[in-house]
Amino acid sequence: MKEFKEYSNVKLKDGREGAIVEIIRDKSGKIVELLVDIGSSPADWDNIAVTPQDIDQITWEPND
Fold it and tell me: Model's pTM, two decimal places?
């Protein structure tokens, strides 16, 4: 299972790229949804909700 971190850059399976801005977990701690900012400029930025299964790869992770 992938370990997701806030502010990591990710590539979605549909080809869009963005940054994780919030990780939503259920009561057991399992990730159920991630809020991702996508877009290339303020003109097309959007905040979308995705599941962990929607993410193809992590392209950059912040240092802890």
Answer: 0.90
